[in-house]
């Protein structure tokens, strides 16, 4: 049975996504909606990480439940850089690149949830099925958000 | 009868029972020395210092406005007037009105001619269009102009220029009302009307201090409470407002927790099966997901988040759950707070679950903050497409392009319209080169004022400001255009219950001031905008032809004006849209038949995610709501973005008060209103005041991560842990060079991702006593800022460094207006005559 493997992989990808969301929140501190919503959405991934860690125990997977609440030691630097360059148009391109990267990561996480959901059904683990049913829609909402922000912000960046 | 219009803002009671007409009471005020018989003419208008839309007449003598009188024949107010309207008209004659255009030369604003000023604007517009395209130009307008003006501005911005950057200051007051209605009903449009107060057996006010923000509406509720079979009143507000005092049940949740509270109330409704299952089955979609989400919010969980007793949440659910005719109203306590749309949508859900829609006494009023906010929204000056059209529906865009005879690619619809806060960001990063501000004062009304000032004063930003008065924003402008205001121009205004009024020109504007409509039309002519047939665009040329064009644009849409005309509006004082062949006299309520404007081909919006704000894709909407039913949606409670901590232990909320409006540009120039509340203050509970060692009247400093203000302390009955600052006060009437008076020095740049409405009511703040005051705070005693009933410490008269005094009996003089605030009240039989 490779359910444990799927949980471990999903745990890893959720963690990367959460970190990337927190990093984006700091790197684009002056883009207020990005800053706040990215943090809110990182909290969803943090919930997923905790629940996956708990579920993983039943499959012998030992992964951490905790997720840092900031983007790490470089947080003040990233924020300062954002504020310093806030009066320039160039970071707009960086923002699009980051949103694009977040979108691709969220798409990967979504696929991993899909795989886990399939596996959970195959081994008839109803608790695990319920977990995927609860969490996967939130990943899809993260995915839609990155897409929507790209769509909303790109015209001004690209046309100016 | 005579009353002091300041000491008694609400006037005498005219009690009435359910299902009977609200009695007439006509309020009037004439300038000192002017008698009824001196008045040359009475000119029709509607109130513009709040969203209630009270019908009134302006008294004119020798070419000047000399007083006002409520209209007895108007269904909105039946003659009553708000103190702001009784006295606010005096601002029209203020000696410091702007009377000539100003241009910035060598850093200073100097007088110029209209020709010079307009030529400069046109030159810069053309340069920007050539070099950077339409996305480099933005417009920020108001909630205080007329429909004709908003429609014209929409046509110019969205059509002629083709920029996506157009918004109104309705973003600050009513964006969430529109967003919540779109989420639940697929389209903007107020479902209920004020007459529902005459029928309701339960009225629930959510974050809606009607007593101060809609004085005459509160009169109507007070008259029901004084009559036979009065309604039960539910109030949700962290302050002890006059509404809270009159309420059957008052819940005072922590600011920013409205979603948790509402989820808890709706959890109880479902748990006790207080649901109209037939209505839900036949007229809504989304029940299962909705019920699953609120199942996670038993009253105990909500109680913990909101810091209100769980039993109060149960009691609230019982009151609304047992109502037979339930009327819900919502305003800024929800709209300007964390998770604004998700919270307001829960009120829509409440009336849907209980089947309380579309019949007398049953419905929801998602209120507006400003007098003509409804027009800003329906005409598209808030960025939405004209006539509640859907920017994501290509057919709607094509229809609008056809109406304007423009190429469809001319109208930007590749993304949602740019809201104000985003526009400001584009100005900050330099991609927006020109911002044209009309009839609003962002340098006082937007959050984080230090940032706002620094953005608006950038050299590379060409700032045009069009206003009637010098303001904190005109100070930063490159060009200032003097505008005519209410009383000096003609146009229609639509209030929060869809009532359309005609406002007629009563007097000439001062100096060279011109109506906003004329200014924009002249800009269009000078820019030489053309339609597909090479004809001048927009093709209309005055208020009435603009109104006729707007009627055509609205025809067939929910906000249908096609059955209205200036002539009809001169016969009837106030008609509710839709007014068309089906509803020749207007319609009191929307959705009476359980049918909504939500069909995929017709709806204004496909909705957004209630947490992320991401727009729903058209395909997804079609799949989930193919028949256009009402939509039950809910969101989980999301943690506050700024939580109180050791350094900032208080939750700061800001808001309006009874005697002032917006940034006091008009009310601060009316002596009675100015003197009733001349300076800002901070409200704090007696318990918290004791904690910081401060007493009534002491000077305190309120500090947040953004800045600090210094005001006098009013010890009031606001809940513990929460402090309140009025948001009206700026700097135009002070010599103080420090920016330490405006509440928005303190507020954060953060907004609801769904409605994009800035959050003014969830700020972590520190409060410290600076020194003793010279008497009580300059806060009115008549309304929510009344001194706490017991245990108010007296003002400290000792030296600044002395220890806080022991509490003794307070001596706060009652707010009054004296002879200058004399208001006459007439009943139906004694209404004064006078020529019209």
Task: Provide a descriptive summary of the structure in words.
The complex is a heterodimer of chains A (160) and B (836). With 160 residues, chain A is an all-alpha fold. Chain A has one domain (2-66, 91-159): Ferritin, core subunit, four-helix bundle (Ferritin, Up-down Bundle). Chain A has 5 helices and no strands. Chain A has helices at residues 3-27, 32-57, 75-84, 91-122, 126-159. In chain A, helix 2 (32-57) runs antiparallel to helix 5. The longest helix of chain A is centred in the C-terminal third of the chain and has 34 residues, at 126-159. Chain A is elongated, with a radius of gyration of 17 Å. Chain A starts with a helix and ends with a helix. Chain B has 836 residues and is α/β, with parallel strands linked by helices. Chain B has 3 domains: 102-173 and 372-576, Rossmann fold, CATH 3.40.50; 178-367 and 597-631, 3-Layer(aba) Sandwich (Dimethylsulfoxide Reductase, domain 2); 650-771, Barwin-like endoglucanases (Beta Barrel), CATH 2.40.40. In chain B, 27% of the residues lie in helices and 17% in strands. Chain B has a 7-stranded mixed β-sheet with strand order 7-6-18-17-16-8-9, sandwiched between helices. In chain B, helix 3 links the parallel strand 8 (137-141) and strand 9. In chain B, helix 11 crosses helix 12 (310-322). The interface between A and B is medium-sized, with 31 and 32 residues.
